[in-house]
Amino acid sequence: MRTGLGFDLHRLVEGRRLVLCGLEIPFEKGLLGHSDADVALHALTDAILGAAGLPDLGSLFPDTDPRFKDAPSSLFLREALRLISEKGLSVHQVDLVLILDQPKLAPYREKLRENLARLLGIPPDRVGLKAKTTEGLGFAGGEAVAAWAVAVLAEDGA
Ligand SMILES: [Zn+2]
Hints:
single chain; CATH 3.30.1330.50; binds zinc ion
């Protein structure tokens, strides 16, 4: 087993779609970034890459590359899954914490979790997803969304 940790943060701004865990969430603001700025998939992809000893998301998919402009971040995750499979590794389990004051994620949590499981090709009971607020501190007031992710990889045949 190998474990990796990922973190990411994007600013919430008007005039952007809010995409989390690969799904669009109805909200008046979205995350600013070169790709779709899916902070959850970025943290998760970095955790997977880190567990496999591969370069991080920013090195593999530079935000100066026009190919990734407004790209769905599931593309980065898929490429990370391909890279780890080349090393004989697969995702066994993941756990994520999203940190945001708004919007409230409770109504979407199960859908987001199921979508993560679908993207990863693992059962939903191996995907943890929690949403936490900052209790009105830090980047409160809906200025940003942050995400932490842990990924556990298994070696094929182990
Ligand atoms: Zn990011």
